[in-house]
């Protein structure tokens, strides 16, 4: 897993002195992850991992308001017979200077650092704004 992440994102990041080794890259990713502290941000907005469902727009608004940038939220689609999608990954994007930026930046931008928050390896897709959304406790 680590090797894959390093080859996919890290080799691009390696052009930056602050990220030019695997150790620095993953160390910095952990530091950014702790700095973002996603769960407590969502808790402050009254969104907690549980069996109740949330509107995707509510979750997005809470994150955007708190961080000032739009993250990329990906979901597992509803299972057979279910109506709700499940948050699988919340991704924050950073500039090369490691400042948070919108994940909706123009495609030409390179983004060496993404704080990837993954749930398993299942196929994720961008969450639907209209489906009820389940926020599981394993989202890291």
- Quaternary state of the chains: single chain
Please name the CATH topology of the largest domain: Ribonuclease Rh, Chain A
Order of helices and strands: HHHEHEEEEEE
* CATH superfamily caption of the largest domain: Ribonuclease T2-like
> Biggest β-sheet, characterized?
7 strands, mixed
Top-tier CATH class of the largest domain = Alpha Beta
GO molecular function: ribonuclease T2 activity; RNA binding
InterPro entries: RNase_T2-like (IPR001568), RNase_T2-like_sf (IPR036430)
Protein name: RNT2B Ribonuclease
Organism: Scopus umbretta
Description:
It is a single chain. Helix content is 33%, strand content 19%. The chain is an alpha+beta fold. It has two domains: 1-36, no CATH class; 38-135, Ribonuclease T2-like (Ribonuclease Rh, Chain A, Alpha-Beta Complex), CATH 3.90.730.10. The protein starts with a helix and ends in a 6-residue tail after the last strand.
List keywords for this structure.
140 residues, Ribonuclease Rh, Chain A, seven-stranded mixed beta sheet, alpha+beta, 33% helix, 2 domains
Concise overview:
The chain is α+β, with helices and mostly antiparallel strands. The chain is 33% helix and 19% strand.
């Amino acid at each position: 897993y680590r090797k894959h992440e390093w080859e996919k994102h890290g080799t691009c990041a390696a052009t930056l002195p602050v990220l030019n080794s695997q150790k620095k890259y993953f160390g910095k990713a952990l530091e950014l992850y702790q700095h973002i502290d996603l769960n407590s941000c969502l808790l402050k907005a009254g969104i907690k991992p549980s069996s109740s469902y949330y509107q995707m727009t509510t979750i997005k608004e809470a994150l955007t308001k708190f961080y000032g940038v739009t993250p990329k939220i990906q979901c597992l689609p509803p299972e057979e017979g279910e109506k709700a999608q499940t948050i699988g990954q919340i991704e924050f994007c950073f500039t090369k200077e490691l400042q948070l930026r919108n994940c909706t930046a123009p495609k030409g931008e390179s983004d060496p650092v993404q704080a990837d928050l993954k749930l398993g390896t299942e196929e994720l897709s961008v969450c639907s704004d209209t489906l009820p959304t389940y926020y599981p406790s394993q989202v890291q």
